Amino acid sequence: MRPVSAGEVGELRKDVERLKSAIGAMSRALAEANRARGIADGEVAEHRRRLGEALELRADLERQLDRLERDLGRERTATAIRARLLADILQSKWWRRRPAIERAARVELLLGGCQNSQ
What we know:
Order of helices and strands: HH
Radius of gyration: 42 Å
Distance between the termini: 102 Å
């Protein structure tokens, strides 16, 4: 083995110190990255929870919209029937009005019964 000079020892010590500094800096960077990852994981979990709530709300609103559209369709149909019955009453001759009114009353009872069962 050859003897190591003082200059080489000094250079090796500087290299070791630079490596220790680099290791320390990398350790700090890794710790910071881990903290940031922990925060990001928490935020992702919160966003997933909110997304789940939003999807549930959307499904509920779509069910309500479907129900309201069905109700609106029934109301429009009943209104169209009533309009037709009124038109029949108004267009009928005076001696045919009583049967038209009676028919309208029977249909109105049926419409009222259908709406009460909904």
